[in-house]
Design brief:
The chain is of the alpha/beta class. The longest helix has 20 residues, at 257-276. It has helices at 9-14, 42-50, 64-76, 88-99, 114-123, 137-143, 166-175, 188-191, 225-238, 244-255, 257-276, 295-301, 319-328, 358-363, 380-392; strands at residues 81-85, 105-109, 130-134, 148-154, 179-183, 201-205, 219-223, 281-285, 310-315, 333-334, 344-347, 371-374. Helix 4 packs across helix 9 (225-238) and helix 6 runs parallel beside helix 7 (166-175). It contains 15 helices and 12 strands.
Length: 396
């Protein structure tokens, strides 16, 4: 009888033989579904926890599956390091709290996602952090102060699809001793890689295009190793770590990301042209349209012919007109997220940007009736037909 067989049944149930560690490299990333990691000694445990020895202690701090996902996104973004997060907002808030302290100042450029706006406008002032909201690179340069630590922008502004001048923003930020951080969720590294244009940090809500299937929530930040080490330290304190199962799903989405995003972009361009020609549409925001204010800038900074998969259309009428359009479409679902296989819509003023009052909406260039459309992977002709029918059902 072995020593193990001499143990009680309860003890043997708890202390089952460990799984073998294969010598062969797994072809797909394994899921390390464990909350903790075991050490051979108390000294080894202390050394890894203190960072004197590389390793894993606790999945709230690091996990191999989650790290593999962040490293894969970093490779796509031409970055040297990445850190995973439980959501896009966890990535955004942790990045800002890493580099902003009481008395510091931030500059936010262009229309922002409502959650980011709410964080900067409502929450961070509680800790003595002030933000100046500006429209473009020239205004950003003028707004930078000695206390400015971060300039924040979005590759494709949510939901106006405005495009920043990365080189000008990077020059202004760096001249003032600040970092340029870019939320590139709407573009993905398939469309644009802001680090190549001078940005210091790039943030993604991986819940969107990176995951691509509306079945996992996560975020990621990429950039220089020295900056990402600071971001990791803040995340370890705040606790917004990406779970390994979610990391596996998001990592799997990266395999088809270029294929999916190119299809999203092609269909979105066709959809935008069709909506711009409809008499019941007051305006269309899509950088791929030649009359978009930032079309030339997008063409310069984005990979050839790709302008993203999100189109904002504003039907003629008031706030109710936008909600009626959302209710009238059949293929598109009323969904808060985007970037998946299905076409989805959001009435912006009452959902994604509910944090903004009418004055803030107008200042951001968002109409009360505006509807954000995440163009999916359905046949483009079917999407156009669905919205055309829905628009024609609206009262004159």
């Amino acid at each position: 009888m072995s020593e193990t067989e001499k143990l009680g049944i309860d003890t043997r149930a708890v202390h089952a033989p460990p799984a073998a560690v294969p010598a062969e490299t797994p072809f797909a990333p394994p899921v390390y579904r464990t909350s903790v990691f075991q050490f051979d000694s108390a000294e080894q445990y202390a050394d890894v926890l203190a960072g004197r020895t590389p390793g894993y202690v606790y999945t709230r701090i690091d996990n191999p599956t989650s790290d593999a996902f962040a490293a894969a996104v970093a490779a796509l973004e031409s970055a040297d390091a990445g850190q995973p997060f439980a959501s896009g907002m966890a990535a955004i808030s942790t990045s800002l709290l890493t580099f902003l302290s009481a008395g510091d100042h931030a500059v936010a450029v262009g229309a922002l996602y409502g959650g980011t706006y709410g964080l900067l406008h409502h929450l961070l002032p509680r800790w003595g952090i002030e933000t100046t909201f500006v429209s473009d690179a020239a205004a950003a340069a003028a707004a930078i102060r000695p206390t400015t630590r971060v300039v924040w922008t979005e590759t494709l502004a949510n939901p106006t699809m405005r495009v920043p001048d990365f080189r000008a923003l990077a020059a202004a930020a760096h001249a003032g001793g600040a970092l340029l951080a870019v939320d590139s969720t709407f573009a993905t590294p398939v469309v644009c890689r802001p680090l190549e244009w001078g940005a210091d940090l790039v943030v993604h809500s991986a819940t969107k295009y990176i995951g691509g299937h509306s079945d996992a929530t996560g975020g990621v930040v990429v950039g220089r190793p020295d900056l990402l080490a600071q971001v990791r330290a803040t995340r370890a304190e705040l606790g917004g770590m990406l779970a390994p199962d979610e990391a596996f799903l998001l990592h799997r989405g990266l395999t088809t990301l270029p294929l999916r995003v190119r299809r999203h972009c092609a269909s979105a361009l066709e959809f935008a042209h069709a909506m711009a020609a409809h008499p019941k549409v007051a305006s269309v925001d899509y950088a791929g349209l030649p009359d978009h204010v930032d079309h030339a800038l997008a063409t310069e900074q984005f990979d050839g012919g790709l302008y993203g998969g999100v189109v904002t259309i504003t039907p003629r009428g008031d706030r109710a007109a936008g909600q009626r359009l959302c209710n009238a479409v059949r293929l598109a679902g009323n969904v808060t997220s985007l970037g998946g296989a299905h076409t989805v819509v959001s009435h912006i003023a009452s959902t994604t940007h509910r944090q903004l009052d009418d004055a803030a909406l107008a200042a951001s260039g968002i109409g009360a009736a505006s509807v954000r459309v995440s163009v999916g992977l359905e046949d483009a002709a079917d999407i156009v037909a669905d919205f055309t029918r829905a628009l024609e059902s609206l009262p004159d």
